[in-house]
Specification:
The protein has helices at 30-34, 37-44, 50-59, 88-98, 142-151, 166-173, 188-191, 197-200, 231-245, 247-252, 276-286, 291-296; strands at residues 22-28, 68-74, 77-83, 101-109, 112-119, 122-129, 133-139, 178-183, 203-211, 214-222, 260-264, 267-275. By secondary structure, it is α+β, with helices and mostly antiparallel strands. The radius of gyration is 21 Å and the shape is globular.
């Protein structure tokens, strides 16, 4: 009789993401967010609700049932990890249907399955870990390979959130249901954002949490050099004012509470509560612009 397999080392989904080559990472709890009336109202102003059904039909994953999700961007690929909200056999079947050619199937053990193939000219990989964790990777398959190796306890390379500066931001944001993080150093087009604070930071992050018809917003920049007179705090507040004065920021931030700024440990922070309705309209408008254009609203104009 064969010995039972050791349990997979799944832990938190973010523990399956390597730090090498990471450009950005989003942590969220979709089921919790989509069950909140504030979030549903916000999304309804920017997105067609039928998209959830279409996504479930295409992938076999119902985001309204997904307890945890992580999206991570790398130089050559994007990785989507979900916990719960799917049937393993159904997801595998739908994934095979998506692949145009070159489908290859591999199983390290009976509860670990990897399916790789091409959709058009883009390689895509599905990794199933146990019954309730799936990793979808678009582009190079290295993030899926790393997630598999972590789960099998065969990889001991640094994980995305295991060390500063991202670990500092995760601790700073606490239990927020939606957190977006990006480690530095930042490209030139980002370096001047937020009046140059982004270029000086070792990592930046944003957290959102719905609160009774409003959305709590927290912004954090880790590793910004300390200067006399809390100059970084003043610059962050000035960058917020720049954003609020722009066309997109002026729409999204209308009705927000007065922001508060602070230095908490090694994080320069800003907090505000936003009106969900105006934020949703701002998001809808922002979809027509590139993110770099939006961030420029928070940069100082020449001569400032």
């Amino acid at each position: 009789m064969a010995a039972p397999l050791p349990p997979l080392a799944l832990g938190d989904l973010a523990s399956l993401v390597p730090s090498g080559g990471l450009r950005w990472i989003v942590l969220c709890r979709p089921a919790e967010l989509l069950a909140d009336e504030t979030v549903r109202a916000l999304l309804a102003t920017a997105f067609d609700g039928n998209r959830y059904d279409a996504f479930a039909q295409d992938t076999g994953v119902d985001l309204r049932r997904v307890e945890r999700a992580v999206v991570a961007g790398f130089d050559a690929s994007t990785s989507y990890l979900v916990g719960g909200g799917f049937d393993r056999a159904n997801v595998a079947a739908r994934w095979r249907d998506r692949l145009v050619h070159g489908a290859a199937h591999a199983s390290a053990r009976e509860d670990v399955t990897r399916i790789r193939g091409d959709v058009g000219t883009t390689p895509e990989t599905l990794l199933l870990l146990g019954a309730q964790v799936a990793c979808f990777t678009v582009g190079g398959e290295l993030p899926a390979r790393a997630a598999e190796a972590y789960a099998l306890d065969r990889l001991h390379a640094p994980r995305a959130l295991a060390s500063p500066p991202l670990a500092s931001l995760v601790a700073h944001f606490g239990d927020a249901p939606l957190v977006a993080l990006a480690p530095g150093p930042f490209e030139q087009r980002w370096a001047h954002a937020a009046r140059g604070l982004v270029g000086a930071a070792s990592a930046v992050g944003v957290a959102l949490a719905p609160t009774s018809g409003r959305v709590g917003l927290r912004i954090g920049l880790a590793g910004v050099p300390r200067e006399p007179g809390d100059r970084a705090v003043r610059l962050l507040r000035a960058a917020w004012d720049d954003l609020a004065a722009g066309p997109i920021g002026g729409l999204a931030l209308r009705g927000c509470s007065a922001p508060t700024t602070s230095i908490e440990g090694d994080v320069v922070a800003l907090r505000s509560d936003l009106d969900a309705g105006t934020l949703g309209r701002g998001v809808a408008a922002a979809l027509h612009l590139g993110i770099a254009d939006i961030m420029r609203e928070g940069s100082a104009p020449p001569g400032h």
